[in-house]
Amino acid sequence: MRELAAGLALCAALNAGFFAAWTPPPRPIPLKLDPETAIESAGLLSLGMRRVAADAGMIRLLIYYGTVETGSDEEAAVQGGGSYPEIGARARRILALDPTFSYASLWAAGALAFNLKRPDEALALLDDALKADPGNWKYRAYVAAIGFKKKGDSGRVLALLEPTLSQPDCPTMIKSMVAFLYERAGRRDDAIRVYREILATSRDEGYRHNARRKLEELGVSPH
Amino acid sequence: MTGLRAAATVAVNTVQESARSRFFALCLVFGGVVLYASLVLGLLAADQEPRVLLDFGLSLIELLGLAAAVYGSATIVLREMETKTIYLILTRPVSRPAYLLGRFLGLMAATAAAMIVMSCLHLAILFAKGWAWTPAYVAAVFGSFLKVFVVAALTLFLALFSSSILTALVIALILWTLGHFLAEIRYMIRWGSGLGVMAPLHALSYVIPDLQLLNVRDRLAGPRPLLAPLGYAAAYAAVWLALAAAKFSRKEF
Amino acid sequence: MGEAVEALVLSGVGKTYAYSHLGRTTYTRGVENLSLAVRAGEAFGLLGLNGSGKTTTFKLALGLLRPTAGTVRVLGRSPRDPQAQAATGYLPELPYFYPFLTPREALRFYGRLSGLGGAALERRIDESLAVVKLSDKADRKIGQLSKGLVQRVGLAQAILHDPQLLILDEPVSGLDPLAIKEIRDTLAALNARGKTIVVSSHSIFDIEKLCHRVAILRDGRLVAQLARADWANAEGGLEQLFVDAVTGAEARP
């Protein structure tokens, strides 16, 4: 028994002394568990798997957005329509789990602003993302691009989004949209470049198929 | 013979025993199977497939390392006591602390080897999927190993203290989860300050190992200090190993 | 280590086991007021029914247990003194070895723990295997050996480091008659070379043949100490004297 008591006392002293002498990096904010994912989140967090929980959230978000909503027009869904009211909340949840998972926020903001025509929701999400990761220039670029999209200035949208395309966290959805905007603006060479990049880097077979088709329509080879 | 030499001899024997252990082999086979499953999961993540593969794979490597080390720590000495193989060691000029240290370090060497093998397999899959190398990977695996090291040292003490494999395993796993939940526990304590019912939790929060400190796997994109956490892990493990040695020195057979 | 006239001395030794459960402690006597001295170079037998304290006596001599009363001296030193341990060889009842090792590998492990190494260790391994007639099976996995052969491995590890004192707990337990004779002859040869042997056995016949003196225990107490002349001249031999002692009939001094 005395060894156990000694151990507990030494550990308490170690913890107190260590954290008095050294400040660890900031920790993620304790999570509020929502009813639907409480058990899964608690389980994964208790195993130190915040990133895995965020990944699971992202997979579910992609499945959510890729699933035709009950009662909606299937054609509209294929064209990116449908309401998908939970996108913002789901993306915020991923952000709370892993503030550095910028892909999730950029993807959700892009879907809200450019597909679902809900720019204010996208801006609110990006505002939260910037609070969690204030140094992230891509969030600022998206905020500005959405602002110009609201004003109908595609040229400025393209200029703001172009530098983000080469970043590893750029969603293929954004690349595909940018390529489409280049096409519509008559900037054929830029459109071809972006479609070819989608083929080279994207793992989403849907977007790759679309890129291949677009390149055929533009009369060029995929490479 | 010198304590270090005796410890090294016992450690080598422990590595041999672990390498031939069915449990270790099962861990590796299971690891291969689940890595394959994470490949399938990665397909659902489309653009984020490399990240999903990375995160799931690192978590798996850590869990398998934990299973092997904690099970080994809980059983390695108690089993020798049951089969009486320990008599043939302790009746030789081998100090009991040297024996215990040898067993523990041998087990951790075997665990590290298993984690390295799993990591090599994982990296092969990652590179095949176009993942870009980052030195954070090594830091992540090392951080996982340190967590396993701390909890394994605690488990060894618990096994000797309770003389029960099951008790040691259960308490070790509870401490593993609490060690990751410390931020939330401290939040609850602040939220419930003034409530007497929080007092035991408050006391517990001082002795639980802060495993989040070593959880580099979950901070791949952020700051990853390693030196101070390494010192913390070494000190925490040393406390429980020293107490295990003291307990074991007084044990009768 | 210098020659001690008495290889093993127990002076007024008592050992009480305390078992605590749910707040209640029960005490069981292992041995009580046990005094005996084994002279260097003699073969000394320890007899008694199951539970009479033979194994407790051995464990006290080996330092696996601490006496609750009295003192134990092995070659003039405390049983846990490294020099005493280096000069003592022990064969437990029904020895168990790691099944994945061969006899040679097992002896190498125990030999290193006894402070041997290099060419000297390999030489001693060969000699020990030859003494116990196990040379032709030295490289077969212990898990594949019969009980009798495993017993020989046990004896080989006990003599490996050329100890002055051999403590053997039931060395012929469960063996066939031919194996028993071979082991007995081996022990006699070792004794003839000057090794002190302390042996327990349920086989009165073997003890009669091998030992110069015997002690008989009953319920943890010494009830008789006999020399060869005593049982050689007694009607019914050692067996009758043993039966008288353990049943409480008057034993001859």
Largest sheet of chain B: none
Q: How much of the residues of chain B is beta strand, in percent?
A: under 5%
Number of structural domains of chain B: 1
Name of the level-1 CATH class of the largest domain in chain C: Alpha Beta
Instruction: Write the H/E string of chain C, N to C.
Output: EEEHEHEHHHEHEHEEHH
So what's the overall shape of chain C? globular
Number of helices of chain B: 10
CATH topology of the largest domain in chain C: Rossmann fold
The SSE order of chain B reads HHHHHHHHHH
Q: Specify which chain pair forms the largest interface.
A: A-B, 41 and 53 residues
Main sheet characteristics of chain C = 6 strands, mixed
**Strand order, sheet with most strands of chain C:** 5-6-7-3-8-9
What is the helix tally of chain C?
A: 9
Q: What distance lies between the first and last C-alpha atoms of chain C, to the nearest angstrom?
A: 34 Å
**Which runs of chain B of at least 5 residues are low in confidence (pLDDT < 50)?**
none
- Low-pLDDT segments, ≥5 res of chain C: none
The proportion of residues forming helix of chain B, as a percent range, comes to over 70%
Number of discrete domains of chain C: 2
DSSP strand count of chain C: 9
Shape of chain B: globular
